[in-house]
Amino acid sequence: MKKSIVMLNVLLVLMITLSACATTAAPEPTNPPVMVPTDTPPTAVPTEEIIQTLIVVTDDLGVEIVLAEPAQKIISITPSLTEILFSVGAGDRLIGRDSNSMYPEEAAAAVDLGGMWEGIPVEDILAMEPDLILAGEIFAAEAIQGLRDLGLVVYWQKNPADFEGLFGNIMDIAVLTGTENVAGEVINSLTDRVSELDDKLASVDDIPLVFYELDASDPANPYTPGAGTFISFIISRAKGLNLGDSLEGEWVQVSSEELLAQNPDTILLADYLYGITPEIVAERAGWSEIKAVVDGEIYPFDPFVLSVPGPRLVDGFEQVAEILHPEVFDN
Questions:
Q1: pTM higher than 0.90 for the full model?
Q2: Does domain 55-198 have CATH number 3.40.50.1980?
Q3: Residue 228, CA distances (Å) to 80, 159, 209, 233, 247 in order
Q4: Count of alpha carbons within 13 Å of 307, Cβ hemisphere only?
Q5: What whole-number distance in Å separates Cα of residue 239 and Cα of residue 326?
Q6: How far, in Å, are 7, 11, 192, 228 from residue 4 at the CA level?
Q7: Angle between helices 313-324 and 180-201 (to 10 degrees)
Q8: In what helix (H) or strand (E) does residue 95 lie, and over which residues does it extend?
Q9: Yes or no: is domain 203-329 CATH 3.40.50.1980?
Q10: Are 259 and 244 spatial neighbours (Cβ–Cβ below 8 Å)?
Q11: How do the pLDDT tens digits run along the chain, 331 residues long?
Q12: How remote is the C-alpha of 12 from its chain's centroid?
């Protein structure tokens, strides 16, 4: 009986297992997805690759000035660089200036940071957050390094010794401000004016000796520019001989005795703005015997066209040439 029950149980389990297998349906076959064409085939979306080109200029101290973009907030603490900045069309970016940066008139709109005689106003400059400071050779390398140590970007430029140096100075400022096209036009115009005047002076043989008076605070020993200065270069280019070339130094005092000995043909008074007139010069002890005084060849001269070595150096060239050789301008 027990055996029958066991066999029955075995049959029952087998029947249940077979039943379960029979009720498990085989999976239905599925059709693969069909791609339906569209009117516009899909296209790849281009990704814009941004390539940033840094502006790199090496200043006259040999320091690389690196800008991510053209300077927008500029402080100039040297008049010649202020003039260059405006000449290349970037004057509207001037936010601060030294007191002597008075040309062009639009420069007056920038904050006046003082005359710099007592040093550079560092705190005022830091508060303005400039992205570029322009400084000329009147500032020592140590002073410029002090600004750089504070994280300021400073471009230092020496005075030009000739027109090629002037044009290079102009283009450097243009590169820093992204105005190379404007600078190119300015340089071409200045070059044409210089070439035209050179042609007029080509036939000039008479070379007058010129005394250029910078400062006569001590009338018996006035200051004059020496050899290697841009003023000496302009006088020479205008077919004159700078008296100061025979002296030692770039900005030197010359005694009345030396002036009498050299006996200049022409005197240019770059200190006339400070009240020095031809009449005053003629009254100096011993000066009445100088040829320029005897012949009345004493001329007041705008000091800024030569003492500020910017684009107006070409104006100065034209003015000096017309004083020394008026005959070439008559035709």
A1: no
A2: yes
A3: 18, 11, 17, 7, 11
A4: 19
A5: 12
A6: 5, 10, 129, 133
A7: 10
A8: strand 94-97
A9: yes
A10: no
A11: 333 333 333 333 333 333 443 444 444 444 444 444 445 455 555 555 556 689 999 999 999 999 999 999 999 999 999 999 999 999 999 999 999 999 999 999 999 999 998 899 999 999 999 999 999 999 999 999 999 999 999 999 999 989 999 999 999 999 999 999 999 999 999 999 999 999 999 999 999 999 999 999 999 999 999 998 999 999 999 999 999 999 999 999 999 999 999 999 999 999 999 999 999 999 999 999 999 999 999 999 999 999 899 999 999 999 999 999 999 987 6
A12: 104
129 to each of 77, 112, 123, how far by Cα in Å?
Answer: 15, 15, 10
Domain with CATH 3.40.50.1980 in the chain: 55-198, 203-329
Cβ contact 103:79 at 8 Å:
yes
What are the tokens at 126? Answer: 């830091």
Distances (CA, A) of 50 to 47, 102, 205: 9, 41, 60
